[in-house]
What does this fold into?
Amino acid sequence: MNRLVVGRLTASPAVAAAAAAGAAVLSLLWFLRKSARRSRPNESVLGLAELTKACELWERELAGARDEERKRRLRKLLWQAYGALDTLYEISGRSRGARNMDHDDGAASACSSDSFMSVSNLEFAHGADYVQEAQSELIGGERIPMTHSPTDITLNLTEELPDIPPIVADERPYESGLARVRQGEVRCRKIRLSVSGCTSDDDFLACVHGIRHAFHMVLSRVDERTWLRSHGQNLLCKLLARAERPSERFATAFGTILDYVTNSLTADGGASILAELENRKVAALSFYDLVLDFTFLDALEDLENPPAALTTAMNAWVPAVVKQKMLVAAVGVVISAKRGRADPQGFMTKYYDVMEEVSPVIAWGLLGSDERLKQSCTVLKDTILAFTGQLFRLTRQAATLGELADSVLEALHRSSDTITRMLNQP
It folds into this structure.
């Protein structure tokens, strides 16, 4: 049997080659970024597919890791690989909307991709041994012994959403959703007629049914999951940098919650998370339900109608630095109280760890007096609301679920472009 051993991972030649190519691509990143302006649109770039495969392998390894230090080092390796992927997408011109996340020098160190430029040996012939050398460069001289083969851990993202009625391939998503609604099969924690532009509860639920399935189809693609994880963290890190707040704790919390969700999907299809969120009426473990509805739309709704005491404090004639401290303290008290009622080992505790880092920044941006941050947070808010409304319009128009998924992906990339352009401004 022609097999290579990488640490304690027994890998087929194809897997070892993909990992080695991925490591070599990391080494080439500096040159590629320098030559990006000279590249032709849609040019094929060496290593794009190979690095995507390597990221998938490392993601699976991370999903099975139990030791916290090991997970931290794997997250660092993956994060820097995701940065390389963003640059390769930019150079190749492969996008549904730009994937050109620019790791500018102003971003916090936890979000920078420059730390892995020191890998100097570019010989692909070193094979599996070379990827270990590259990992040693990236993680401070220690090797990461791999303990799972790529087939050990599988995320069943291509299967139907659990407990959510399917959409037949030739059905129009909206009509399919409307039929399910009339049968009482579609639930949602909150009806949002204003932001969605819907005319009735049934109209709203029919669209939500299609949106859930469209995001599920989009995120069944490894490259889109990789891009979304990388790009989402980059954007929020840049927002923290704009507010002059460190991003290391956020990056750690962000990686931890994604690992937790991945492990839950692997273990029980996300049933444990849904059980924890049952009293919050979250009906599905989907991007719409968890990210848009439960996180962003709820937060923006709260900031539209802040408590009277907070509004008075923000309008008082006191120095801006005092107002900011009052706001951060108020947000911290609320989050700490909620975390105290959550399962210490559960999803919500990890969720509040993320919100503790991001919520004060967005709250101060929208309610405070920092005009530069206010502009960024206003663009973020307006883009999220516009994107949400667009999802509902696209669902009504789509002829098939595949068409809807493609349209949702286009809209997602365009929206991220809008936010990225704002955050890249000096």
Notes: DSSP finds 16 helices and two strands in the chain. The first strand starts at residue 4 and ends at 6. Residues 1-44, 95-160 have pLDDT under 50 and may be disordered.
